[in-house]
Amino acid sequence: MAGSRGEFSSRIGFIMAAAGSAVGLGNIWGFPTQTASNGGAAFVLVYLVLAFCLAYPAFMAEILIGRSGQANAVTSLQKMSRTVFQKRFAFFVGFGGVICASLILSFYGILAGWMISYAVEPIAIVLKQEWIAEWVIGSSIGRNLLFTVLFMFLTIIIIRKGVEDGIEKWSKRLMPMMIGLLVLLIIYVLTLDGAQEGLNAYLNPDISRVLEPNLLLSALGQAFFSLSLGTSVMVIYGSYISKKENMVSIGAQVTLIDVSIAFLAGLLIIPAMYVAQAQGVQIFAENGDLLEGPTLVFKVLPTLFDSMGNVGLFVGFAFFVLMSVAALTSSISMLEGPVSYAVERHNIERRTATTWIGFAILAISVTIVVNIDYMLDLVAILSTQYGQPIIAMLCCVFAGWIWQRSKLLEEIKQGYDDVENSFFWKIWPWYIKFICPTAIAIVFIHSL
């Protein structure tokens, strides 16, 4: 093995890193957009229930596989395999997660680059460099390449530092910064005209809608995918956790933070939509459908910030810095997937592996930028709608059907002696064996 693997030096270090991976552009923007498109508060209610009843058990499966194996995703899964077929199956699942994480990062870096470019615009305006302000929010190949490269370099630099000095150190810094910015923006937006209407739409559920099939499936998908399931990321992060830690409580804390930040994001975005609407910006079509969808952040919010005058420059800058930070805490986990595989399976030095893999993924990003009209959606759909649900489902199958129950119990007891008598142990093994694979399969079939 090329050097020491390292591990998280503290519980809070892992929690911040895992929550940082889970909390990305999907949570900060995707969750509010899904909420606005699927019944508002009714979607929020269903999402909260499914996050703890289904996503949390699946999340536990991945981090337990990682801590038991103390290795990259492929090796960890193969360690619990007993037959040649199971070992080949383990390679397929583990390496599939590595590929999935790499593909996600290749288009994620482009989106994150846009966030950075929109954060630069207010600075250019303050400095009276109007041509720069116009260029950074344009859709030129040059703009896309510059900010994609910048974001990928930031990700590579952090991962080159390793677990404790890279992932943990920067997650501890970036996550509190992100939460602080989010809270300040919420406080500001809630003082504006129209915010109360948005608050009512977000917090007052129409109970009659909670059983709508599309709403249930959308909430289920958001709950699973917001926790970075199906990308081998949580298997790897789990492998860096001390054997002394109580995995049941750690998993619950990460899930709670992830859900809480998604909820806070909705508390910002949904009222902001209604504030923009009160100022004459069209948010919803006549039939009530959300206009623009996922690209609304680049269409509506800049208009909202512009209407605030000079204060809007600061608010816009803070918001897009927030989005950039959210993207970075996710991207470092995605790059760690293929890097850990290269370091441990092929004995490549970490800095070398990080640099070469980072540049390889950047090359894919550049290819997407040059062919952005069709490749961006293609890669996003391939990795998130097909790759993630399949890999997440197969990890649940591993934990529920291949991992021997006695070995699984032994692993959890290392940090929680009395787990055998807990409510968690009475419910979770059955959940992971039957409920979670079925639920994820439903989401995948729906995506087809």
UniProtKB/TrEMBL annotation:
TM helices/strands, residue ranges: 12-29, 41-59, 89-111, 145-163, 175-195, 215-238, 250-274, 311-335, 356-374, 386-403, 423-445
Pfam families linked: SNF
Stored NCBIfam families: Na_transp (NF037979)
UniProt keywords, alphabetically: Membrane, Transmembrane, Transmembrane helix, Transport
Organism name: Thalassotalea marina
Protein name from the UniProt record: Sodium-dependent transporter
Iron is among the record's keywords: no
InterPro entries per the UniProt record, alphabetical: Na/ntran_symport (IPR000175), SNS_sf (IPR037272), YocR/YhdH-like (IPR047218)
Keyword Membrane in record: yes
Membrane topology: Multi-pass membrane protein
Domain of life: Bacteria
Chief location: membrane
GO cellular component terms attached to this protein's record: membrane
Subcellular locations according to the entry: Membrane
